[in-house]
Each structure stands twice: as C-alpha cells, then as structure tokens.
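Reviewer 2 asked us to include a model.

Predict the structure of this chain.
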Amino acid sequence: MHLDDDQPVPALERDAQGILIALLAIGVLVIATAILVGHVAERRLVADLKSQLGSRLDVHVSGLLGDLADYPAALTMLASDPRISRVVVTGGEDDVGAARTRLRQYADLSGADSVVIIDAEGRLIVDHENNPAKATTIIDWLKRQSAFRMAFNGGLGRAFGVVTDDRERRYVFARRIANPEGGPALLVVALNLEHTELLWRLASQDILVVDRQGVVLLSADQHRSLEQLGRTVDQGGVAVACREGAIVDPDDQICVARSMARLGWHMYLLGDLAPARQQTRLLQWVTVLGLTSIALLLGAIGQRRLATQRTLQIKENANRLLQQRVALRTKELETANRQLHIEVDERIGKEKALREAQAELVQTSKLAALGQLSAGIAHQLNQPLAALRAYADNARTFLARGKLESATENLLLIGDLTERIGKITKDLKVIARRQPTKTEPVALPPLVRSVIDQIEKTRTTDDFKIVYDRLDATVTGEPVGLQQVLANLIQNGIDAMDNASNRAASILSITTEIDGGQVRLAVADCGTGISSSDIDRIFDPFFTTKDVGKGLGLGLSLSASMIQDMGGRLLASNRDSGGARFTIELRQASGHTPA
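Predicted model (structure tokens):
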C-alpha cells in the first residue's frame, strides 16, 4: 500500500486560516484594550493627583490663615498697654523710648515688618525701628485705604497691597488706641508675606493667591506677583477659567482652588500632569506587550497543534502499513504469542510471590525497628522518671513539713531531670540520624557526684554503700551522655548486688585512674559477676540476664555506643574478689592536668 505523505490536508489548511484570523482579531483587541486602559488609567491618575493637590492646598490655606489669625488678638492687647497709651498723651522723649522698646519686643516676637503708632491726622508718633521714612511710606499708603477709616471707627482695619515704589507688598492691621486724654490714635502692624512665598518655592509648590479683581497677590513664582489674570499670565501660565479640577492648557497642568472668604482671596495650586501621562503611556505599552506576548504564545500553541496533528496523521498511515504486515505474519506470531503468554503468566506468578515476600520483609523490619526504638526510649527514660517520682514525693513531704529550702532543692533537681529527659530524647534522634556527638571538656568529680546524689535520693534501703575516690580528672566527652552512662552502670551494679549473701556489707566502688593521655573511670560491684558465656555478648542489643520485665537489654548496648561516639570505649570484666567491673575509658582533655 502506497501513502503519499506530501498530499495536502484540507482540514489543516482550514485550521491555519482560523489561527491567522484569530491572531488578527487579537491584534485589534490589543489596540482597543490599550486605548481603554490608557483612558481609564489617566482618569484615575488625574483623580488621585487632584485629591493629593487638594490635601496639600488645604494645608497651605490653613497655614496662611493661621499666620494671620494671631495678630488681631495680639494687636488688641498691645493697644491696651499703658506705655502705648501714655506716649499718645504725653509724646515725651522718655515715653517715646519706652513705647519703642515695647513695639520692638512685639515685632521681634511676632515677626512683623513694621509696628507704628499714628495720630488721627495720620502723623507718626513712634515706630519700632526709629525709621521715619519707612514708617511714613506705610502710613501714606494706609491713609488711602478703607482700613484706615474702619480702624478709627472702632473696627479692625485690614489691607494688603503695594506700599512702596519698588513693588513691596505688605499686609497691614490697624487697631484704634482709645485714649480720651490724648485723643484717638492708631496702632498699625505691617507684615511682609514674602517668607511665605519663599517657603512655597522651597517646597516646589506652584501656588497663587488672587484677590476678587484677579490680581495675583502672592505666588511661588515671583514673576507672577501683582499681575492681572487675563486670558493668560506669563505666556500661558494660568488661564482665567482656572477652577477646581480643570486641566489648564497649554502647560498640561491641573488646577485646584480654595476660597478664603474672610480675606476675600482665592488660593490656587497647580499640578503637573506630565508624570501621570507618562505613567499612562507606560501602562499602555505594558498592556500592548503583555497582550502581544499572549497572542504570540497562542500562535505558537496553534502551530504546535497543527504540527502535532500532522505527525499523528503520519503515524496513523504508518500504523495501517504495519497492520498489513502483521496480517501476513499472523500464524507465526500466534505460536510465539502463546509461548509468550505462558512465560508471562509464570513471571507474573513469580513477581507476585516476590512482592508478597518483600512486603512481609518490610513489615517485619518496620516492627523490629519500632520495637527497638520503643525499648530504647523506655530504657533511657526509666531512671529519670523514677528519680522524678522520688523527688516529687520528697518535695511534697518537705512542703507539708514547712521545709521550703529542701523542697526548693528537690524542685530544682526535678528541673534538671526534665532537662536530662529532653536531652535523652534529643540524643535518641541524633542516634537515629547518625549525627556526630559534640564533645567538650568534662570534669569528672562534679559529674560523678551529681549522679551519686541522684541515686542516693531515690534509694529506698541503706544495705549497701557507694564509695568514690574523687580523683580530679577532666575528659573529652558529652556531659549528659556521660552522666547517663554512669547512672546506668551504677544502677546495674546495685541490681547485681541484690542477690549478694551479705547485702549489708555490699560496697559499690567508683575509682578513677589516669594513664598517660587516657582516663579510666571504673564502677565495681560485689555481685555474682558475669559468666564466661555471657561476657562476650554483654554489649549486644536486647541481651540481658535480668528476669522478664526487669530489663530490656539495651542499657549496656546504648552506653557502649555513646562512649564510642565520644571517642572512647566501655569495657567489662570480673573482679578477682567477686563481682563485675565496668570501665569507661576516655581521652584526657587537652590542657587539663590533675591538681
């Protein structure tokens, strides 16, 4: 059978056309989505910018109003000062000096540019700087303002404007000084708000303060000050129609406005839209790139799908050819298949038996490991738990008798034992994970004394003695493990002396011997000793000569393993006088020699 692999496949061509149309549609969708995302993002960014500008403008409005709010009350208090009233009446040189001193103090505290006193005709009586020319300039300007008449009528006069020929602006307060003896007079305070504009410039805030006539009174841009807002200011700086939320062309700025009704002013804050539009364009590009990447990925998936379909068709044709060839050799294969089935059945049976054996072996290993672990934990925790019970009973007895010091000592020992139990469980994990033991210099006398004290406190009879030679020696080992091994050897010796003929004369001796760089710590009892048939198996796991229920056979095995991990060894032998001796042999700690 002949199969032409190059024959065109109409279904695949239709799929390719569909993928092309889909890619075109995705391209149109990408462009439309980018435009929509840009529009939504720009609206959101402009709204956020407007909110930020509004918050900043509120701060600036509060700051400006706060700067001006303290002067009226202070001016009223200053007008009632006796030194001010007296200079209006007498005009004497001493009174002028006292009044000038008071005015200078007020100017220094309030930051006023000029503080003067004038009579009803507008003549200068005294100023704080003793600068008649400057004071006269301010007075001449004030006399032309409605604030001058308002102040003499008993109100608070306020005025803002250019007071000098060089376009210096001042905000002026005027308050009448009521003095029947000397006639009415005015206390005038002039403020220079240029420091406020300086702060705006330092903060990079584009702020304008405009009066009802559209005159720029204050501005962060000094060139805008005192300009009349027409169609534009400074070749397109601010449009007349600047209102809250409006976009100001052609500078790509947004304007936020606040009204200061008490002053008859409006404050504008301009914000630059360029960063928002840059973010919008960046977001549009990210959208285009992301959607384009998705489109390219979909196109690649489509191409791979077409290639996969073509490969499947080629494989299908090859399978048909193969089936024809198989049909020609059916008879030969039937015989081979029957033989193969027989072999397969045999292998299946063998594999099944093997899996069953493996499963049984794994289960047996698990049970053995679990039993060893449980036995090890029980053996290691048996002595500390017994000591805990004894210390707890003693502490309860001491508390009942009011012996708090003895009870506290027992409670401290209970704490030490719980720490030891925690260390034991940690050591069991270490043994299971085969991690190295961390050794350190260990002084033997306090360690041995601590173990003896624990055993003495838990003993219930006095029919044996423990003798320790207290030879000063320091070994390289692990303190808790070494304490654990020594406690196990001492308890084994005590158990071995249970069957001694003269229990009252039984002595368990602990001796220390230093031989070169080795330290031998021996525990010898007066028991029956170790039989020759058992001495070679004494350190095997689960080997014990104790009755059932009294021992697991893990103590000596674990003890030998711990000493070996410390770089030493545990030896067992019989004494000539009867009894057994267990010797812990460890390296002497470097730099520690017996005293």
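The CA atoms of residues 258 and 382 lie 84 Å apart. The chain has 13 helices and 17 strands. We have added this to the supplementary material.
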